[in-house]
Amino acid sequence: MVELARFFAWLGIVGVGGPAAHIAMMRRRVVDQRAWVSDDEFTRMVGACALVPGPNSTEMAMSLGARRAGWRGLMVGGIAFIAPAFIIVCALSFLYEDLLTSDLIADMRRWIVPIVVAIVLHALWSLRSTAVRDVRDATIVVATLVGAALGLPELLVLLLVGIASVMLRVPSRGVGSLLVIPATSLVTPSLMKLFLVFLQIGSVIYGSGYVLLVFLDSEVVARDWITSEVLLDAISVGQFTPGPVFTTATFVGWHISGVAGALVATLGIFGPSFVFAGLVDRIVALSQRSTAFAAFLRGVSSGSIALMAVVLWRLASEAFDDALTVGVFSVALVVLAGNSRRK
């Protein structure tokens, strides 16, 4: 338990860059260095986390904790990963009114994003043999990239490539459907209403922090709880601070109702993940008993890694403004490659 708390608290302090970077860091530690799980098990868990709502890297932390120490490990892994980010974002929220500006937030992100690009690129290179083990995997990766290029929702892409994987590997089988929970209408913010809004978002959201932007715009900005400018700053803070990107909710909650708002918004958006993460091992176990589901999860796993490449492309497009950012990226990549060779 102490080992789990130390590892995920460390990751919550240094893990900048969003889910792709967090998963890359987890892989280096739990597969390459500590051998908690194999590469194949790790990618199955990534695919399983992609199938349930909520922040994927946070659910990976919980799932790895559960694999290591049962339900107590799940709780410790999740809390240790979330808590540092919660504290950091609360501190930034406190300073926001007087010291932080949108320009300053953008400058901080400008230095961090090239390092994140290097981390994700290094992880993708390490996972390449896991994502593409045969021609069918290559077909799934290409289909995922095409779906992402067409602007299809991430969950829909993963479901489609999962079905395609079943058809390629077990032609006589198929898979099921989704349930979407509709939003409720709120008029004025209160702590309970704030909690319920973020609980609802955490229960149904799939995808990145940019998807969170859409949910918050319709659920919070549309009710005049915050302005669009504050929301964009909240998304930026969630992106460049370490730990889960969904601590954007902490920033929004603080801006609405101070520390109490930050706390209930954080509990609301992350609460469902403690339930969903408990399903990940069952999903992986089912894939080991069912040929059809194993094919489905293999397609989702390959698709998830392909979507990391899409995230990498998006990050790279905003990271390289000048020679300085290219230099930061190059140094980070050399350091990562050097560490891998030593191990």
**Rg computed from alpha carbons, rounded to a whole number of angstroms:** 19 Å
N-to-C span: 25 Å
Q: What is the chain-wise order of helices and strands?
A: HHHHHHHHHHHHHH
- 3D shape: globular
Number of strands: 0
For the record, the count of structural domains works out to 1
> Biggest sheet: strands, sense, closure?
none
Number of helices: 14
* Helix-residue proportion: over 70%
Mean pLDDT: 78
Percent strand equals under 5%
Characterization of this structure:
By secondary structure, the chain is mainly α. The chain has one domain (2-178, 277-342). 78% of the residues lie in helices and 0% in strands. The protein is globular and about 60 Å long. The model is unreliable at 173-188 (pLDDT under 50).
Task: List descriptors.
mainly alpha; 343 residues; single chain
Structure in a nutshell:
The protein has 343 residues and is an all-alpha fold.
Ordered list of secondary-structure elements with their pairings:
Layout: H1 2-14, H2 19-33, H3 39-51, H4 56-96, H5 102-131, H6 135-149, H7 154-169, H8 191-204, H9 209-219, H10 228-240, H11 248-276, H12 280-289, H13 291-319, H14 323-342
Helix pairs in contact: 1-4, 2-4, 2-5, 3-4, 3-12, 3-13, 4-11, 5-10, 5-13, 5-14, 6-7, 6-13, 7-13, 8-11, 9-10, 10-11, 12-13
